[in-house]
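Design request, C-alpha cells follow.
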C-alpha cells in the first residue's frame, strides 16, 4: 500500500466501548424496574390517626354554632354524579322515640343516631347507634345498649359488697349510684325511650335544606369533608342546651378517694354503639377505671371534651 494514502476511517466504537454501554443500559433498566415495583407496593392509610369532628365544641356558644351550620347549608352544592350526597348531622329540638325519629326525618337516608337517657340531674352515657332502617335498627340498637347497661348495673352491685367498698362508705355510695343509674338507663332503652336527639344522614343539598325546614329539626350541619364515618366524631348539641355547650349538671359528680369522675369522651364510628364513656355513674373500679368506661377515641383516653362534645 502506498505510504501517502490517508488512514482508513473508523466505522464504529470498539468492542469494549459497546460492552460498556450495554452494561450501563442494563443497569438503568434494572433501576427503573425496581423503582416501578416499589411504587406498586401498598402504602399505609394516611387517614389513620386523623379524626374529623362535626358538631359543637365544648364551651362554644350554641347559637353561633346553629347560625354557622345554617350558613354552610345555604352555600352547599352537590358534587357531580347521580348518587352524590353529603353527610350531615341533624340535631333535633327534643329527645325523640325511634318512631318519632322516622317521622321527623321524613324518609331521609340514615346512617346512625345519637342518643342518651335524659335522667334529671345525671350525666348519662352518650351512644351512637348504627341505623340504616328507622325505627327498626334504632329499637334493636337500644336493646343491645340495655343489655350492656344491665351488665354494668350487676357489676356495680357486685362492687358494693366487695371488701373495699364495705370499708369505705363514700366508695360504696358511688357504686350504689352507678348501679341505680345503669339500671334506669337499661329500663329506658329497653322501653324504646324518647332518647334520640340527633341523626347522621346522607342526602343531596336540596334534600338537606328541605329537611332543615321540617318541624322538630333544630339544625342540619352539612359535612362535605366527611368520607369515612368510622373516622368521624359527631357532637350535636343537647336539646336543653341554649347558650353554651356544657355538660348537664350532675348531682353525682362528687370527688371520691380516687379522685373526681372522669369526663365523657367521644368516639368514631369504629365503636359499635358507644360514642362516649359513662361519667359519674359510680365509683372507680380497681385500677382507677369505673365499670362501663370504654374510651373509644384519643379524647376519651386523654380526658376529652365532656358529654361527647367535639
Amino acid at each position: 500500500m502506498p505510504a501517502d494514502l490517508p488512514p482508513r476511517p473508523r466505522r464504529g466504537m470498539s468492542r469494549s466501548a459497546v460492552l460498556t454501554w450495554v452494561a450501563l443500559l442494563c443497569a438503568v433498566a434494572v433501576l427503573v424496574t425496581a423503582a416501578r415495583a416499589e411504587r406498586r407496593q401498598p402504602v399505609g392509610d394516611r387517614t389513620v390517626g386523623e379524626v374529623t369532628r362535626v358538631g359543637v365544641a365544648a364551651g362554644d356558644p350554641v347559637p353561633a354554632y346553629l347560625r354557622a351550620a345554617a350558613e354552610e347549608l345555604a352555600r352547599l352544592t352537590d358534587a357531580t354524579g347521580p348518587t352524590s350526597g353529603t353527610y350531615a348531622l341533624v340535631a333535633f329540638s327534643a329527645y325523640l322515640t325511634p318512631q318519632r325519629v322516622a317521622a321527623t326525618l321524613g324518609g331521609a337516608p340514615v346512617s346512625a343516631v345519637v342518643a342518651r337517657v335524659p335522667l334529671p340531674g345525671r350525666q348519662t352515657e352518650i351512644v351512637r347507634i348504627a341505623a340504616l332502617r328507622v325505627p327498626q335498627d334504632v329499637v334493636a340498637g337500644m336493646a343491645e345498649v340495655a343489655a350492656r347497661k344491665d351488665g354494668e348495673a350487676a357489676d356495680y352491685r357486685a362492687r358494693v359488697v366487695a371488701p373495699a367498698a364495705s370499708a369505705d362508705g363514700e366508695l360504696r355510695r358511688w357504686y350504689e349510684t352507678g348501679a341505680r343509674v345503669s339500671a334506669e338507663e337499661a329500663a329506658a332503652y329497653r322501653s324504646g325511650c324518647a332518647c334520640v336527639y340527633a341523626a347522621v344522614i346522607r342526602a343531596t343539598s336540596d334534600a338537606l335544606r328541605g329537611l332543615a325546614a321540617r318541624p322538630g329539626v333544630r339544625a342540619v350541619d352539612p359535612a362535605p369533608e366527611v368520607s369515612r364515618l368510622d373516622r368521624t366524631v359527631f357532637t350535636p348539641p343537647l336539646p336543653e342546651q341554649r347558650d353554651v355547650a356544657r355538660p348537664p349538671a350532675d348531682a353525682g359528680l362528687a370527688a371520691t378517694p380516687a379522685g373526681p369522675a372522669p369526663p365523657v369522651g367521644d368516639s368514631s364510628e369504629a365503636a359499635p354503639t358507644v360514642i362516649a364513656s359513662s361519667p359519674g355513674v359510680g365509683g372507680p373500679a380497681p385500677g382507677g377505671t369505673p365499670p362501663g368506661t370504654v374510651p373509644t377515641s384519643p379524647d376519651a383516653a386523654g380526658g376529652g371534651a365532656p358529654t361527647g362534645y367535639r
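Comment from the thread starter after seeing the answer: thanks! The helical segments are 15-40, 62-75, 98-105, 136-160, 163-166, 169-190, 205-212, 298-301.
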